[in-house]
Amino acid sequence: LITMSDYKQPTLEQSDPEIYDLLQHEQTRQWKGLELIASENFTSRAVLETLGTIFTNKYSEGLPGKRYYGGNEYIDQVENLCIARAQQAFHLNPTEWGVNVQPYSGSTANFAVYTAILQPHDRIMGLDLPSGGHLTHGYYTAKKKISATSIYFESFPYKVDPVTGYINYDKLHETALVYRPKVIVCGASAYPREWDYERLRKIADEVGAYLFCDMAHYSGLVAAQVVADPFKYAHIVTTTTHKS
């Protein structure tokens, strides 16, 4: 395996001391500060090593076995291995669940879902951001559409009960019957309660909607089987790799 010492080129410190200095400052900030952003994490050395390899040199547009460029035989093996490991991690039957591991973030994964099953201006329902939802679930303010989701699609939020802090499923059901969304989004970035996926699926079926779960913030708990499993009821599930 080629290591950094095999490259007869200047190091980052030598070629760009300004960027190197900023990198050192960021490293100090991460290690000496107290990080309270729940969605951030410290990645492992193995992941950092992988991110700094010659895989970054390769174009790999397309899917395994169906690339637009040649020379992807090892990239295909990596991607297929990642797919199989994802299915194994979440206890999925490969004949029932396909996996796409190509999005670079949860936000792009979510937008890929929307563009795959919706037309512009189709309707979605997601948990309101002040109730613990995520920006990509359709949030907007009176003055601004916050994300591409609310720009390209119409959205109407459901909310938590201000007294109990739990999602008001009765109100959600009532709203869905009137609004008739094409997608109901569940999962959140700041909602610490269990989700009633079975009830959400029944509501989605009643109004002819897809049930889409964004489990990024608690997917580790799903993999460990200590919280409810969205795969039993959702049509589509997205996640990231590092939040829990």
Automatic annotation (TrEMBL):
<comment type="similarity">
    <text>Belongs to the SHMT family.</text>
</comment>
<dbReference type="Pfam" id="PF00464">
    <property type="entry name" value="SHMT"/>
</dbReference>
<keyword id="KW-0663">Pyridoxal phosphate</keyword>
<dbReference type="GO" id="GO:0030170">
    <property type="term" value="F:pyridoxal phosphate binding"/>
</dbReference>
<comment type="function">
    <text>Catalyzes the interconversion of serine and glycine.</text>
</comment>
<dbReference type="GO" id="GO:0005739">
    <property type="term" value="C:mitochondrion"/>
</dbReference>
<comment type="pathway">
    <text>One-carbon metabolism; tetrahydrofolate interconversion.</text>
</comment>
<dbReference type="GO" id="GO:0032259">
    <property type="term" value="P:methylation"/>
</dbReference>
<dbReference type="InterPro" id="IPR015421">
    <property type="entry name" value="PyrdxlP-dep_Trfase_major"/>
</dbReference>
<keyword id="KW-0489">Methyltransferase</keyword>
<keyword id="KW-0554">One-carbon metabolism</keyword>
<feature type="domain" description="Serine hydroxymethyltransferase-like">
    <location>
        <begin position="12"/>
        <end position="244"/>
    </location>
</feature>
<dbReference type="InterPro" id="IPR039429">
    <property type="entry name" value="SHMT-like_dom"/>
</dbReference>
<dbReference type="GO" id="GO:0004372">
    <property type="term" value="F:glycine hydroxymethyltransferase activity"/>
</dbReference>
<dbReference type="InterPro" id="IPR049943">
    <property type="entry name" value="Ser_HO-MeTrfase-like"/>
</dbReference>
<dbReference type="GO" id="GO:0008168">
    <property type="term" value="F:methyltransferase activity"/>
</dbReference>
<dbReference type="GO" id="GO:0019264">
    <property type="term" value="P:glycine biosynthetic process from serine"/>
</dbReference>
<dbReference type="InterPro" id="IPR015424">
    <property type="entry name" value="PyrdxlP-dep_Trfase"/>
</dbReference>
<dbReference type="GO" id="GO:0035999">
    <property type="term" value="P:tetrahydrofolate interconversion"/>
</dbReference>
<keyword id="KW-0808">Transferase</keyword>
<protein>
    <recommendedName>
        <fullName>glycine hydroxymethyltransferase</fullName>
        <ecNumber>2.1.2.1</ecNumber>
    </recommendedName>
</protein>
